[in-house]
Amino acid sequence: MTFRAPKGTDDILPPASRAWRRLLLTWEDWAARYGYDLVLTPLFEATEVFARGVGEGTEVVQKQMYTFTDGGGRSLTLRPEGTAPVVRAFLEAGANGIMKLAYSGPMFRYERPQAGRRRQFYQVGVEYLGSREAAADAEVIELGYRFLTEAGMSDLSVQLNSIGDRECRPAYLDVLRAYLDRHREVLCEDSLLRLETNPMRVLDCKVCAPKLSDAPSPVEHLCAACAAHFDEVRAILGELGVPFEEAPHLVRGLDYYERTAFEYVATDLEAAQNAVGGGGRYDGLAELLGGKPVPGVGFALGLDRLMLTLGDVEEPHPLDLYLVVAGERRREALRFTSELRRLGIRADLDLEDRSVKAQFRAANRRGASGVLVVGDEWTEGRVVAKDLTTGRQEVIDVGEVAAWTRRR
Ligand code: HAM
User: Fold this and answer.
1) Domain 16-167+222-310 architecture
2) Quick one: what percent of the chain has pLDDT higher than 90?
3) CB of residue 85 inside a 6 A radius of ligand 1
4) Which of 11, 16, 257, 340 could form a disulfide with 345 if both were Cys (CB 3.0 to 4.6 A apart)?
């Protein structure tokens, strides 16, 4: 019998995993540059964390959660997203003040699988907790933009909107409900239900949204405080040099957002999966989870989708050196490799007794950028060094290997 990975999940093996690894390293670098600390939370939470945090009326909670009962009779859910868990953790720790947190890891949603829409998918994200400042929104949006650009995304558009807050939204929802009521005939079954319970979700419906292009938008109904906040976000983004487009009908699929909502869109991907990331401000989420008020803003990026838009990126070299051993020199070569590793060089060698030709093949398969041949010259303290990227080959002293590797 053979097994396959469950539907909608992927195995990511080398060489494809090398591009993922590089992306994750780039992410960690950029998150650290903006002052984010690492946060790790469980892969599952009490189901209520998502039901209350993300919202009972959302597609995620209604249709997409992997919920199970554990041996103790608790209802648990594999996390469909990272924001509610991070806010839960902040509250549980009794934390105060500003906390800037970054995460990466798998999320789980029961979706109809297709390219860029998976049941287990990988997110990286940040949550900036404790600040109500528009500058925090702008800085968060900038980080996502800079990281995506650095990662190599060229067809990138930042879509920006404000969806108001607890003050101004009720009046907007009345206007929207009245509009939708007049357009019942174009609404799908789900949207007809949502019209009563959660009308803003209708604008997020992939089927109905294209037919509702003249719907009233939240940004036309902002209270003075929300309008001022939105003005400031736009002004600061301009100062930071982050290009954006206003998207008056962007409402996001999760209920916890207030004020700023944004998406990073890959303009070269199919519309249904072209959001490589999204986020916004969620000043009411901590209270939805039963805690004190903690304002926050953040985003998450979907790496599966990002990899699709990046396409065939040049594969990074995971190894600086691969040692090819000729003759009975395996143990000496292993000792030498150990020295190189301690000098910070990524080096490996074949521990099997294989032909030189097979070892060269392994060097290429393993993605080494250089090869050292430990052959007859070894007795004179020399090795053949070959740069696999240029094909250039020379004989060098073993004492020069570290410098030769770094020079390339
Ligand atoms: P989200 O828009 O639900 O937001 O997901 C963010 C990104 O995760 C999406 O733009 C997409 O790239 C990726 N994603 C979502 N579902 C799938 C899927 N089934 N397959 C592949 N990729 C997927 C959130 O999750 C919020 N927690 C973001 C946030 C953080 N808001 C504030 N802080």
Assistant:
1) 2-Layer Sandwich (3.30)
2) 92
3) no
4) 340
